Automatic annotation (TrEMBL):
GO terms for cellular component: membrane. The keyword Nucleotide-binding does not apply. Belongs to the short-chain dehydrogenases/reductases (SDR) family. InterPro entries: KR_dom, Maqu_2507-like, NAD(P)-bd_dom_sf, Sc_DH/Rdtase_CS, SDR_fam. It comes from the Bacteria. GO terms for molecular function: oxidoreductase activity. It comes from Marinobacter nauticus. Keywords: Oxidoreductase. Residues 128-314 form the Ketoreductase domain. This is Short chain dehydrogenase.
Length: 411
């Protein structure tokens, strides 16, 4: 018992320091709530929406609701007998900062709930039905390889049957449990057929990875008579993904279990010039997923958006200038997908991507100027301008340096 007790905020900071976490710079004095009449406080606490929100937050953090009754619990401990017994001895009660690290260390080694969870991809997906779209190349193929190796019941879909069969045979030869179904995910009827086939054969889907996509790098100045570019990207990147989500969601909601991973783009965070059609379609999917997550959060159907940086895949191959800029490998990108499946965060993004989003929120004009600088530095590709020469553009030292600083950003 401490004769000079700490406040709740001070105790939290002591344990933050013991756990090497950031300290809270601002604390709320709970006495300020004393100015609110008790009957009003009680009425607010008993409102059904407030009780539901509080219950959901506590459940998410694994805190029993009964704990809330002990916050600021009016308790008085009598230390007079203890002080009398210890008087004249060398024994004294230590202050909390001196033994908080010991308590934290014991909890971390013996009581942390994460110690008893299998945080490996195998432990997460073994025996689970995992669907990957666009699984015959790039990120989709690398993700399919990881899931097959981890023991998932892997369902892969792609447009070209011959390539799809080759990938399935390759994964099966390595011991994978693979089921391949041809599908053009830009065709809504084909999406419906794909969903029906998967549900008929497997009953449900545990994890859906919306990877199939189309990217177009072309400035607006070259797009005035190409409205179909916007229609094509929306059809596959947005409508195709939403069609699958809406098809698989009923079984997920009924089982109260399901996870959707959307492969989005860092361009959504940076507002990448020349990618207006592509970024708009990915932004639409991001917005849909946030709204759907708000509806299904209490039913354990979750969404993760991966704002993927530039990855060396066949999708970017037509833009020859990307041969000279830093990119992720498909395997590195697939590891991001694996982390999304294991940990289920709301979003996965690079630090540069998050910084760009914050910059656009706090200083939008500065962000716009930076992106405009990149836009003027990197020209449209000959293919975007209508040339079929296939000539590889010359890359200047300035362009390489700028791309290295802005690693992973689309230009």
């Amino acid at each position: 018992v401490d004769s000079d007790p700490y406040k709740v905020g001070e105790i939290l900071n002591i344990f933050c320091e013991a756990g090497h976490a950031p300290r809270m710079g601002m604390r709320i004095d709970s006495r300020m709530f004393g100015f609110i009449p008790p009957f009003i406080r009680q009425s607010i606490k008993n409102l059904p929406p407030v009780k539901r929100i509080t219950g959901a937050l506590l459940d998410d953090m694994g805190i029993p609701p009964s704990v809330m009754s002990f916050i600021n619990y009016p308790t008085r401990f009598d230390t007079r007998e203890l002080e009398r017994v210890l008087k004249g001895t060398d024994i004294e009660v230590p202050r909390l900062p001196s033994y908080a690290p010991v308590i934290w260390d014991y909890w971390e080694r013996n009581l942390d709930p994460d110690l008893f969870k299998d945080r490996t991809l195998k432990g997460t997906v073994e025996g689970k039905v995992c669907v990957v779209t666009g699984a015959t190349s790039g990120i989709g193929l690398a993700t399919a390889e990881k899931l097959a190796e981890a023991g998932a019941i892997l369902v892969i879909g792609a447009r070209t049957k011959e390539t799809l069969d080759e990938v399935a045979a390759s994964l099966e030869a390595k011991g994978g449990n693979v089921h391949a179904y041809q599908c053009d995910f830009s065709d809504m009827d084909d999406c419906d057929r794909f969903v029906k086939t998967v549900l008929d054969n497997h009953g449900h889907v545990d994890v859906l990875v919306n990877n199939a996509g189309r990217s177009i790098r072309r400035s607006l100045a070259l797009s005035f008579d190409r409205f179909h570019d916007f229609e094509r990207t929306m059809q596959l990147n947005y409508f195709g993904s939403v069609r699958l989500i809406m098809g698989f969601a009923p079984a997920m909601l009924e089982r109260r279990r399901g996870h959707v991973v959307n492969i989005s783009s860092i361009g959504v965070l940076t507002n990448a010039p020349r990618f207006s059609a592509y970024v708009a379609s990915k932004s639409a999917l991001d917005a849909f997923s946030r709204c759907a997550a708000a509806e299904w959060s209490d039913r354990n159907v979750t969404f993760t958006t991966i704002n993927m940086p530039l990855v060396k895949t066949p999708m970017i191959a037509p833009t020859k200038i990307y041969d000279s800029v830093p990119t992720l490998t498909p395997d590195e990108a697939a590891q991001m997908v694996a982390d999304a499946i294991v940990y289920r965060p709301k979003r996965i993004a690079t630090r540069l991507g998050v910084f760009a989003q914050v910059l656009h929120a706090l200083a939008p004009k500065m962000g716009e100027i930076i992106m405009n600088t990149g836009y003027r530095m990197f020209p449209d590709s000959p293919a975007a301008a209508g040339s079929k020469s296939g000539e590889k553009p010359k890359v200047s030292t300035e362009q390489v340096a700028f791309a290295a600083i802005m690693r992973g950003i689309y230009w």
